[in-house]
């Protein structure tokens, strides 16, 4: 037995502690990674005594492979597979980008037992100054990962829960990511002069309130010409590697059937007819309303819609709103037409009425200001 142990002890005369061993001690109970234990000693007897003790603990089961010190990056590697099972691939992709580009470069190298509140406060302050628009998301995920460490009993305390979270000074900023009725008409007329695809796509967004990801995933089987309805059954998003993902709608409430006006039905029929040729029929096997022959999946993606939007605004000198702004535009028109919040919620597929009411407050800010001005002018008369 001792002769076998003796062979495992190496001698290097050039080192201050010339006697050492390195042996396999099993797989990490949490990560599944292969683990080795390595130690150096001044004398052979010290090395042998330590090795005998280690071998005994391995044999009688008292050695635990979780006794190593973990870095924040190790904890991220444990948390991600669990988190992936709870969210859509597009959400997972967005979160991994935040982790890879921001959280890991800041926290990844720190051992969990050395991650002090003071160190975390400094990092959080840096995030706040560098990424103000994304700060809340960054902070939330970084803290959530440490909470998982507490759950695994790898972290004694969550230092990120102890920091003072910076807050932006409250600024009254007008909500402008939507078009007025006149602006929408100008934009859609401009689309006609650019590309029929652009016109059909953005008019559909403005007249239905669909998310761009929902519109891009539409198939002709989702449109019922006879009942004048449109069913939202899928979305087009990206995964963590920017690959195309055909997924289910964002929330349970997002899977919905909405009514279409007669002019929208006529527009879709005309669009279908213009694309009804043998080449498209053979390649567009899944019958996407907005078919993209250049991509294997047969769909356009959100970045395409953003490009169409920007190109039209740039060419004609129009105010830019995002593709999502056409959803806000639709909500604005519905409220102006007298629709009730519950009706708007159902049409937009909001899971909570609070989301609809928050949008209502934003969209009516300018109207409220106009009303106050009219009142003041009336009183002066």
TrEMBL record:
GO terms for molecular function: DNA binding. InterPro entries: DNA_brk_join_enz, Integrase-like_cat_sf, Integrase_catalytic, Integrase_recombinase_N, Integrase_SAM-like_N, Tyrosine_recombinase_XerCD. Residues 174-373 form the Tyr recombinase domain. SUPFAM superfamilies: DNA breaking-rejoining enzymes. It holds the Pfam family Phage_int_SAM_3. It comes from the Bacteria. GO terms for biological process: DNA integration; DNA recombination. The keyword DNA-binding applies. Keywords: DNA integration, DNA recombination, DNA-binding. Belongs to the 'phage' integrase family. This is Site-specific recombinase, phage integrase family. It comes from Limosilactobacillus oris DSM 4864.
């Amino acid at each position: 037995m001792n002769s076998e142990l003796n062979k495992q002890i190496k001698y290097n005369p050039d080192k201050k502690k010339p006697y050492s061993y390195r042996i396999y001690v099993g797989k990490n109970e949490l990560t599944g990674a292969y683990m080795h234990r390595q130690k150096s000693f001044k004398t052979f007897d010290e090395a042998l005594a330590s090795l005998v003790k280690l071998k005994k603990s391995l044999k009688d089961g008292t050695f635990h492979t979780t006794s190593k010190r973990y870095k924040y990056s190790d904890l991220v590697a444990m948390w991600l597979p669990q988190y992936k099972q709870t969210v859509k691939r597009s959400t997972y992709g967005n979160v991994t980008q935040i982790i890879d580009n921001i959280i890991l470069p800041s926290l990844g190298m720190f051992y969990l037992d050395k991650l002090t509140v003071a160190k975390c406060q400094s990092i959080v302050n840096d995030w706040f100054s560098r990424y103000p628009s994304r700060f809340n998301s960054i902070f939330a995920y970084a803290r959530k990962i440490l909470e998982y460490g507490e759950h695994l009993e790898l972290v004694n305390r969550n230092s990120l829960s102890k920091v003072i979270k910076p807050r932006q000074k409250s600024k009254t900023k007008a909500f402008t990511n939507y078009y007025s009725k006149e602006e929408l008409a100008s934009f859609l007329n401009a689309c006609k002069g650019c590309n029929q695809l652009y016109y059909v796509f953005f008019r559909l967004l403005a007249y239905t309130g669909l998310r761009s990801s929902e519109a891009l995933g539409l198939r002709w089987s989702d449109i019922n010409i006879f009942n004048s309805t449109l069913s939202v059954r899928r979305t087009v998003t990206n995964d963590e590697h920017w690959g195309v993902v055909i997924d289910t709608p964002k929330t349970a409430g997002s899977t919905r059937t909405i009514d279409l006006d007669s002019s929208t039905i006529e527009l879709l029929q005309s669009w279908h007819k213009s694309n009804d040729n043998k080449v498209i029929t053979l390649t567009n096997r899944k019958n996407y309303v907005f078919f993209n022959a250049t991509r294997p999946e047969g769909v356009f993606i959100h970045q395409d819609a953003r490009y169409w939007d920007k190109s039209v605004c740039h060419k004609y000198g129009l105010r830019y709103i995002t593709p999502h702004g056409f959803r806000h535009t639709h909500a604005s028109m519905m409220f102006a037409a007298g629709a009730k919040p519950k009706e708007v919620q159902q049409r937009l597929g909001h899971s909570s009425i609070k989301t609809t009411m928050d949008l209502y407050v934003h969209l009516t800010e300018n109207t409220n200001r106009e009303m106050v001005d009219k009142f003041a002018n009336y009183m002066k008369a």
